[in-house]
């Protein structure tokens, strides 16, 4: 079977937006496991005597696996997937050719099913015909295809899934109608505003108006760039560069934070790959991405991250995930489960804004973090007296006892810089070293000898 490259850019953007809206209306993504879907995949596998059956739904960049029977099928990149082929064909896809090992490894949906040599897939559609997902059968022996009755059976099973989705959509619509209240967006002063709205965020994502900026993280003793924090910006064609505080709250409220967050993770991994291709020494860099509470509460988060690492060919140690305490505390069991799966994957875990939560010390020992990030509010007050300085000293000592690294955020003066070094803080970031920069500007910084930034104190003296 030849490896098929599908250009997702050729998909009509309006049709894709409508498809994604139909998918979102079902509320199926990131939902709890449901016995009805497991029953369907089990029936499909047993009826066809398949080695495995999987039910997946495709959003912007991933195939989210709702249920599988047999060898575990995990969340996967959408590009070049079986879902992409079904979407392109607008109907069932049957591949009856034997696969070589090399061809198997090229298929995003297959690596966990190395004994599969044939698959058949049927689309799962919305009530108005949009393809939301795919029901796929995998076979361990070559077959000549499916006879008409078998194909109808597979499509009937996919229709059963579609009926379940329609019931879910109707329940969601009823609940939304019953609880709807008129609400207006407000700015930081409380004044009503009309922009942005949900459709503005959707358009920005579809038209690729979001961009990542990167702020260097440096080793304080050497000023060497050891990592970067990815920070999202909105490059609006008319309004210019829009900071995240003006659109992230709406993204959280509307649910757009999931596709926007997935885009950010994918773009960061893509950029890591680019930097490593330019210079192999950049393999030691770690790029950190902030996760929202809704992203973090996803049961499939670790599978999604692993799929991105495989897709872009980067190491887990090159990616860091930052989350605040407020995203962990509301559901501790899920938090511990997700953190554990990410830790086993090997990515770095950073607790952002440490010290601002109401129960940091009570819960910190339970979370498997690698790094504590000292909130900029503490760093900014370090020079105001003994008490603020003691807070920073305590956080650094706590991290040392727990075997964690510390990154101080918001370093803006040479006095703060020297105090943090004296306290034994190893890493830091802030305007003193560099503001958040475009990927192109960071690329130029990474070309500095040894990736060492200029001495800020020397620059300060030269300016005076």
Instruction: Return residue spans where pLDDT drops below 50 for at least 5 consecutive residues.
Output: 1-10, 109-114, 178-192
Figure out the total of helices. 17
Strand content: 15-25%
What's the pLDDT, averaged over the residues?
83
Assign an overall shape.
elongated
Q: What class do helices, strands and sheet pairing give?
A: alpha/beta
Question: Helix coverage percent of residues?
Answer: 40-55%
Q: Tell me about the largest β-sheet.
A: 8 strands, mixed, barrel
Radius of gyration: 25 Å
Architecture overview:
There is one protein chain. It contains 17 helices and 17 strands. With 464 residues, it is an alpha/beta fold. β14 (348-354), α12 and β15 (371-374) form a beta-alpha-beta unit. α8 packs parallel to α10. It is elongated. The model is unreliable at 1-10, 109-114 and 178-192 (pLDDT under 50).
From the structure above, extract its key features.
20% strand; alpha/beta; 464 residues; 42% helix; 6-stranded antiparallel β-sheet; disordered N terminus
Short description:
By secondary structure, this protein is of the alpha/beta class. It has helices at 13-26, 35-48, 82-89, 101-106, 148-179, 198-206, 248-254, 257-278, 293-296, 301-312, 332-345, 360-364, 376-380, 386-401, 414-422, 439-446, 456-463; strands at residues 52-58, 62-69, 76-77, 93-95, 118-125, 131-139, 185-186, 192-193, 210-219, 224-236, 240-242, 286-290, 319-324, 348-354, 371-374, 405-408, 427-428. Helix 2 (35-48) runs antiparallel to helix 5 (148-179) and helix 8 (257-278) runs parallel beside helix 10 (301-312).
